[in-house]
Amino acid sequence: MIAFNKYYNHFNIVSTLLITVSLILLIFKGLNFGIDFKGGTLIELRSTDSKINVSTLRDKFSQMNLGDISVKKFGNNTDYLIKFENNNNKKNIIEEIKINLDKSFGNNFTFRRVENVGPKVSAELLKSGIIAISVALAVMLFYIWIRFEWQFSLGAILALFHDVIVTLGIFSLFRLEINLSIIAAVLTIVGYSMNDTVVIFDRVRENLRKYSDIKIFDLTNISINETLSRTIITSATTLLALLAIYFFGGEILKGFSLAMILGVVFGTYSSIYIANTVLVRLRVSQKTVLKEDDNN
Amino acid sequence: MLYFSKLRIIFITVFSLLFILIALSNLFKVEDSFFNKKINLGLDLQGGSYLLLEIDNTPVIEQKLQNLTTTIRNYFKNKDIKINNIKIDKQNIFFNVLDADKQFVIDVFKDENSDINPYYPRFKSHQLVLEDTGYNFKINFSKQGLIALKTSSQDAAIEIVRRRIDEVGTNEPNILKRGNNRILVELPGLDDPMRVKSLLGKTANLTFRFVTNNQNDSFGVEKLKYEDGTDEVIVSKRIIISGDNLLDAQPKMDTQTNQTVVTFSLDRVGAKRFGKATSTGIGKNLAIVLDGKIISAPVIRDTIASGSGQISGGFTFQSATDLALLLRSGALPAPLNIIEERTVGPDLGQDSINAGIIALIIGFLLVIIFMFVKYKIFGLITNVTLVINLFILLGILTLFEATLTLPGIAGIILTVGMAVDANVLIFERIKEELKNEKNNIVAFDSGYTKSRTAIIDANITTLLAAVILFFMGSGPVKGFSVTLGVGIFTTLFSVYFIARLFTSIYVSKNRYREKLI
Questions:
Q1: Alpha carbon of A117: minimum distance to chain B alpha carbons (Å)
Q2: Inter-chain contact B418–A199, Cβ cutoff 8 Å?
Q3: CATH code assigned to B206-315
Q4: pTM to 2 decimals?
Q5: Do A260 and B413 touch (CB under 8 A)?
Q6: ipTM of the prediction greater than 0.95, yes or no
């Protein structure tokens, strides 16, 4: 048996630090919103001319007066991702760019992807994204509230917040782009983190009923150990699947799978070191669950 | 938990085989209509354009208010009430009446059988709201009036959009209403999205009007630019004929001038008016105005009584074809703005499919190897179940002709990773039970029973996340929630029916063996 409970305090400090740093990053550095939430235009180009490189392309684009523009390599050596604000929302901007590129480089580019999101739509998407995550958190709270006692709910929700905030904090730190698929990833993380916590809590509750003489400090440790191999195996298979998406699923899914990988790692960690420590700190005992049984 | 009746075994087998068959039907052309279903590929996988159009209703509202001022003036004139200082700003009409007439005017607008202010009994609301500001009267559209106006212009616009897209001839376009002022257009496998965009971006409001120098034209005049932006001329506001009068329009090569032109033919009313105008206006310039810009303004040399003619204006064959198309399909009631566009080229779509399939295969293999190493024979059972699970999932997506997107494929891969969770929970529980229980059957039985609440809890949380995503998400992300959500059900089915069936067969054959798992 591994003595997870020996490190409860240490990791509580670590978690608090992680959350604090993430919050500071989120507040002061903010998130790097993609065009889905900020509005603007995105173009994915593929060149057939190996002489063209990213700096010549960047020069060409900066001459086109498109406002704040970013030109980057995208996965492949021949692929480029161009993003700009498109503030004046010109209608034929893509056509103009195409003509401009053809003039300077010959007919060597294919437009693989074009996305253009107006300011109104991006504001709506951001709003619905925030609502979706809030609703998800609220629904989870409600679910855990009807399934468990309030001490458990608090533990699960704290773990959930931790996972979401730290994942977003890492995205903020490395300026990784937040787009629609990241919202999907965050929601899945919420589901996964909850799933992981619930399995351990289920066991804690069962053990609370079984043993009246073991303190919650040790009882959580027993429960974590009993469910440990399941926790590891499930995290491992999920991570294997996600790594496959990250490395082989193409550029478009990279951000999504990265967010999910972070979420699974933190979700597993938080189930052990946040959810359970809340139970310990709230001095949950056999009485907590038996009282509930009487009520039912 | 381990007992299966014969009937149930048959049911499980038939059910699984059925869905495997349906899933496989994606790979073959099957004549039978039931198996003819296929998973639709999303625009991000097959390539195509997603366009969200917003109708700009401000000109419609202004036009309606403009018409309304005339109506109001005439209506009250007949009642011997003088309307003074009538004027319009963008959303309101203002006017004054004598104090003595005030109550009468208010009553007219409040009357449920009012001639000028239609009443919607269903919503208990009039079309217009009249407000006495103390200084004057203010009229604007009520909430319901505005909704009715928006809905009707949306209905008209979607019809025109449909016609224009049909004329371009894309396969299986998807044109839907969104809210009361938006239209969603999905165009799979489009070669030239720019052409469609430029076709949808034009209102195509065509008018024929005289060029005039007379500033005192009783209909009013306005200064208009030529389409190439070179010149400006003064044009009367009086409309001789409009796009509504057109029966047909076609591009044509004029053999005499070697120019591409658009020929048109007019309906009876249009032909009559055109004939009259061309006979009285010989020597004058007739401006052909499209969306506020002059295409050309030829001199009338002869009376045209045939009701047909041609427009020249330095067209290329493509631009003449597009203009003819726009004229044939009619004018939009209001301008459309493309507020969101997502276009994926077919080669990127194919690359995404390939990457998705490779990731799926690799993810699948990794999980299968892991499970086999960890659980040996029970890993094998889990793996076989996982394969069947995957087929059932694909079968259900096929049956409902769901749309598979790239995030949707990610959802399937994630399902593979998470699907083993339930089996792991069960097997780990059985291991624990076996520590105290010597009888294999009893241990397996209670392993299944005792792990059930955890499994259900765990799956409900993921399902909740998927459901929320389904309702809040858009486009490709929605595809992710579908595969993730359906994946939960297929996983539970395969764990509790298929894997349990295999387990029960294996355990009953080896019931006395020690260290079974």
A1: 4
A2: no
A3: 3.30.1360.200
A4: 0.86
A5: no
A6: no
